[in-house]
Amino acid sequence: MINATLGNGVHAGDSEPAPVVLAAPAVSMLPGSDPSPATGRFAGQSLVEELLRQQEDRAPRSRLASTLGLSPLDANGLAWLRAAQAEMVVGDILARLPEGYSVFHSLPIRNTAFWVDHLVVGPGGIFALSSKTRWDHDLTGSVRTIPIGDHTMPYLRDARFESTQITALLAGAMPATAVVQPMIVLVNPHKIRLNRKPDVVTVIDSPRLRRWLVGRPRQFSAEQQATLTAVIDDPTTWHTPVRTSAPDHLHARFTALEQEVSAAGIRRTTFTVLAAALGASLLAIVTLPVIVSVVEYLAAP
After folding, report:
1. Are strands 192-194 and 139-141 parallel, antiparallel or unpaired?
2. Residue of 222 and 259 predicted with greater confidence
């Protein structure tokens, strides 16, 4: 995933995206925290960190807004929340893989503005997964782009770029013929209809993900998997993010925000129903004398 996809929008292009070189950040570690950015990060953590940072910059809701059920998130914040939820759904699926698989989440790719949502190392290879959500209708796309509303998003292109970058980062530990295989996981779509199967990127719906991964023919030995896992756990492999909160604390804050959004939606729906009922009652009061008059007129001899 690229950081700007949700915040600013990324549109399709004909060429592969060039790496966005970032200055090395100052690393602020919590006492006793794990120095490896690969270890202990939960699914969606990069999105959660950014969403919570955005919320810190927003003014709190007024008492009236809270009472009326105004969401604590704007449209952009809701997009980040849904994207994080999608990554968590995929993370739960990956957590159910059998023994012999290693799974990592929210890994920022060194020297680029990209991060990989999920990285899976197993007997069948190494896979870079990008989670996508909000597929509330049949998905129809091309081998280059995927439509989101009125826009086409270069998710297939981005997935190829990410896998190429990760392959390069892990090159010293990768078997000679192996590459990181890019995947796009669509969370619970109705149907997927691509006009032609992509040549490199696997596009799959979340319900079939676990079975598909387990069904891959063996490509790595146990020793090769162990070597790759060690490289992924090495903090010099990845662009190490600033650690401001423990993962458990971040997850708890995100859960609380989810509950606020849900409660606001329920309250907003309740007020809408009450307003509709009140409107209907007022309309009945206003029109009742007219209806009575018409009935009396029609009943008169």
Report:
1. parallel
2. 222
Asked if 143 and 196 count as a contact pair (C-beta separation under 8 A), the reply is yes
Give residue 138's identity as a one-letter amino acid code: D
| pLDDT per residue as tens digits for the range 56-72 | 877 777 777 676 667 78
Model pTM greater than 0.90? no
Q: For residue 25, give every residue at least 6 positions away whose Cβ sits within 8 Å of its Cβ, in sequence order, or none.
A: 239, 240, 241, 242
Tell me how far apart the alpha carbons of residues 26 and 93 are, in angstroms, rounded to a whole number.
Answer: 34
- 62 CA to centre of own chain: 29
Contact by Cβ (8 Å): 120, 209: no
pLDDT, tens digit, for every residue of 142-180?
545 555 545 566 778 888 888 999 998 888 888 877 899
Q: Are 209 and 43 in contact (CB under 8 A)?
A: no
Rounded Cα distance between 183 and 191, Å, is 17
| Residues sharing a CB contact under 8 Å with residue 193, sequence separation 6 or more, in sequence order | 138, 139, 140, 141
Give dist(CA 245, CA 267) in Å, integer. Answer: 31
Cβ neighbours around 43 below 10 Å, total: 28
CA distance linking residue 30 with residue 244, whole number of Å: 7
